[in-house]
Amino acid sequence: MHEQRRIAALQNDPEYLVLGIFRGQALEDPGFPDKRWLTLDVMRATLEVAAIQEKIEEYEAASKAARVAKLAATPTVSPES
Fold first, then answer.
1. Residue 37, SS3?
2. Which residues have a Cβ under 8 Å from the Cβ of 37 and sit 6 or more positions away?
3. Which among 26, 59, 20 has a CA at the least distance from the CA of 42?
4. N or C: which end of the chain has fewer CB within 10 A?
5. Verdict on whether the full-model pTM lies above 0.90
6. 3-class DSSP state for residue 49?
């Protein structure tokens, strides 16, 4: 496993894969769409905490719903005799 992509439970400062519009150094730069791994500190530097919290809660709810649905649809494995 890549050192920078450890699971969140093993990290003191977890990272999130963010799809966003990222700007360059110049203020007039309109930015470009990209995916980046960002820490909460990096996100907090440019976004409101409430917006970050809302998006993380949406992600966690969607992730849980997908996991529950997938596990419910998976046939139960019975031990062989």
1. strand
2. 4, 5, 15, 16, 17, 18
3. 20
4. C
5. no
6. helix
